[in-house]
Amino acid sequence: LAERTNLAGVRHIVLVLSGKGGVGKSTISTELALALRSAGRRVGILDVDLCGPSIPRMLRVQDSAVHQCDSGWVPVFVGQDKAIALMSIGFLLERPDDAVVWRGPKKNALIKQFVTDVAWGDLDFLIVDTPPGTSDEHISTVEALRPYQLLGAILVTTPQ
């Protein structure tokens, strides 16, 4: 039942994907969130790039901490207006540059926990920044989000 409630206030979910690394997924995710916020929308970013969580640094909140509340983790709120909610493994590491070396089951469990245990509140859009490639993390993310209305995906490519 908790699964339904934490994403119940999220109207649209958008996955940002690519087949390879270094094409700008995190930049697109961040810029999309900033553009939606400036258009008056309530926005969240779920950073499931577990090995390279760059969004906290891009939004200058890498030194923030995640707290617990009755319904799970409270995301970090970004900016003076606190209009962007952000959850990333970067907030859970002792040092932001620590490497995450985990096998599939542990990564998959954390992704499921990010989907079910973050208290997002009411959002117009939840942007999900994924790792590069087509790995277990993508399958886990889509499986965890399957019960919810998924608006769609943005596929980031390069011209070469």
TrEMBL record:
- UniProt record, GO biological process: iron-sulfur cluster assembly
Q: Which InterPro entries match?
A: Mrp-like_CS, Mrp/NBP35_ATP-bd, P-loop_NTPase, YlxH/NBP35
SUPFAM superfamilies documented for this protein? P-loop containing nucleoside triphosphate hydrolases
Q: Does the keyword Transmembrane apply?
A: no
What keywords tag this UniProt record? 4Fe-4S, ATP-binding, Iron, Iron-sulfur, Metal-binding, Nucleotide-binding
- Entry-linked PANTHER family: CYTOSOLIC FE-S CLUSTER ASSEMBLY FACTOR NUBP2, NUCLEOTIDE-BINDING PROTEIN NBP35 YEAST -RELATED
Q: What protein name does the entry list?
A: NUBP2 factor
